[in-house]
Write a structure and sequence with these properties.
By secondary structure, this protein is mostly helical. Helix content is 62%, strand content 5%. It folds into 2 domains: 28-164; 171-321, no CATH class. 41% of the residues are buried. It is found in: Membrane.
Length: 322
Amino acid sequence: MPVTVTRTTITTTTTSSSGLGSSTIVGSPRALTQPLGLLRLLQLISTCVAFSLVASVGAWTGPMGNWSMFTWCFCFAVTLIILIVELAGLQSRFPLSWRNFPITYACYAALFCLSASIIYPTTYVQFLSHGRSRDHAIAATAFSCIACVAYATEVAWTRARPGEITGYMATVPGLLKVLETFVACVIFAFISSPYLYQDKPALEWCVAVYAICFILAAVAILLNLGDCTNMLPIPFPSFLSGLALLSVLLYATALVLWPLYQFDEKHGGQPRRSRDLSCSNRHAYYVCDWDRRLAVAILTAINLLAYVADLVYSARLVFVRV
């Protein structure tokens, strides 16, 4: 959705764009000599080095290692596609809105690399014996951190500022949508074992809340990436405000119910980690049940705060079609 941001006003337009308002020279090798082009080269190199180091010694066994390897390979591939599109000047032929896609991807990539930089060393590297594999894994973690900083820097450089013509995804509410969907995906990973919530209607309601809010936020993102916001039966600003308000109310119930039924003995919960037999020993590539429950509670609070901020910023935005 092409927009012009002037303080808290977003004016929708019908003009096309070849970028995100950056100073990158498109359709020319000179694009790589501009600050944003150099930053993307750093992203490309750091993710490539990260997965190459791990692949050279086969140090990605287990789900956590597989996730980290996928993250680095995926970020490398998409960053390479973005560079090729920029160099060849193919933005107008790209199937998604070029105003919204690069910053949306950069935000996701920053979160992906951040998760890999935390998960890989804490659930995998520390269990490796000293030697070549461990050294490569530590170096890969360092390059993952570099990639995370590089992607976060791109988000900071290309986000919406007063007076700029940009896409909705470059605004604060747009970036918060990315955070909300990413956190929801992490929650889904932690509750992948049905026994954590089955046979307890309150906990099943929490899972339904996570799914409903994720789907609604994902729809908002996809509508912007596909420039399909005019297909809604209601005005897009009303959809965003309603989505944020509904999500705040739903997540508020989940924030109360999930800890209550997971950690309160009166409701069948387990208040102490030491009583959870699955947490009695340290396991490589494994997160015990009590830690999963705690992680979901923390992530629920984080997403509630994100939705509250989304609601506040969405209420301050004014969309004016021209």
